[in-house]
Structures are given as C-alpha cells and as structure tokens.
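Workshop exercise sheet. Pairs work together: one partner reads the sequence aloud, the other fills in the structure field after running the prediction. Swap roles for the next sheet.
Pair: D.N. / O.F.
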Amino acid sequence: MTLSSKNVSDNGRHFDSSTYRDFATQWGFSHVTSSPHYPRSNGFIERMIQTVKNTLKKAKVSGIDPNMALLCIRATPIDSRIPSPAELLYGRKMKDNLPTRIRNNSPGRDDVNHRMQLRQQSQKYHHDKSAHDLAPLSPGQLVRVQDQTSRHWITATVREQCHEPRSYLVETPNGRVLRRNRQHLADIEPRRIHHDEEVTKTPDPHTREEMTLDPTPDIRGSPAPNPAPNPVPIPNHQPTTRSGRVIKKPEKLTY
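Structure field:
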C-alpha cells in the first residue's frame, strides 16, 4: 500500500465526516471534492463506477459469479497497444474465462507510459476543440443559479471562490448558501472595463473639418453622361422573374 498526496471524491456523507477528515490529517493527504450536481468534474471515477454496477447487474441476471465478472474487467486490455490494468499492476498477464489471444511478449514499462501519455494527449486535444474557459466571477456579483429540484433559474450573489477547481459559494435571496460549479452560474451583470483598458480615439481636427464639409462637385466643362438605354418592352403574356428576365420553358416541355 502506498500513500497519495491528494484524494478526489464526490460530496458523499462518508467523505464529509469528521472521521474522514481526521483520517486525511493523520495520513497526510489533501481531500478535494467535486462540485455538487456536477459529476462531470470527476468523470473518470463516475464512469468506472457505472461500468462496475452494470457488470454486477448483468452477472446477477445471468447467474455468473460476480468475482469472475470483475476479474474480466480488470484483465481486459485498455486498447490494442496498452495492457490491462491488472497486468500493469502485477507485471504479468491475468487469466480469465474470456476468449482472447495471449501474447508472450509484454511491452516495457517506459513504452507503456509513453503510449498512455499519447492517449491522454489525444483525448485532451479532441475535448478542447469544443471546450473553453468561462470568465471568473468576483464576490458581490449578481448571477443566476439553477435550482436542481424545480429546474428554475433564480438570482443569487457570489460570496467567494472555493479552493476546489471552478467552484463558487453563492447566496440566494432566502439566505441559503450553495456551492455550485461555474458551469451552473450565469452572469447577469455587464463586465466592468478598467480605465487602463479603455482606448479612446480622438479624431484629427483637420479630418473632422473635411468630413463636415459638403463638397459640391464641379460639373462645368464635364461631358454629359450618356443616357441610359430604354429597356426592351416584354410582352405581358410571357412570365418573368423579379428582375425582369423572361422565363423560358425547356423544349421537351413545349408541345
């Protein structure tokens, strides 16, 4: 067993107890919780829990030993080039009842770490294509927060920013203090622009005078413009477009 420097979890009661806080202090690690009603911030663990629950349900319905079902999850390779989590932990291949092709040559640990980094970089690249950082909020700013029960948006005031990533404490009109992710807070006040960021453009007085003058073109001695040709009259019985173009039907439709 080894010690971790930081433990990330949800806001369950067993994690929000004095016993767990004393345990974290005794073992010397920091405890960080995800934003309430925002499991996406801890998506890796949430997805793994969902996979384990679905596997146990299927094992119960089909009458398979749940321990064997969990072994199949741990012994399944991550992809075609990265071994299973159990093989990475124990350094050897695990045997299960799934039909698979067991290869004798195992990649080196440095090669596996490099492939894992490339895989994570690829996932981050595709995620950042549609993701962007939201503007930070300041204390005392008015925002709208969504009520998770009624799904209605209510007005609240930002109290402070939490030490957890992208989390804020907001106070509702009835005095409740809620902790919400920045994704659940909508800004309703225009942003204040600092005076040093404002750019004031002063027009040139000579240019302004030239713009205010109404120059009159001198048409003396200039040749008279050619008169526009008269439009060709179009018979009324022929259909035309809005621009006046005659609509001609194809010859195959003419009888």
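Discussion prompt: The helical segments are 18-27, 43-62, 66-75, 85-90, 109-127, 205-212. What would you look at next?
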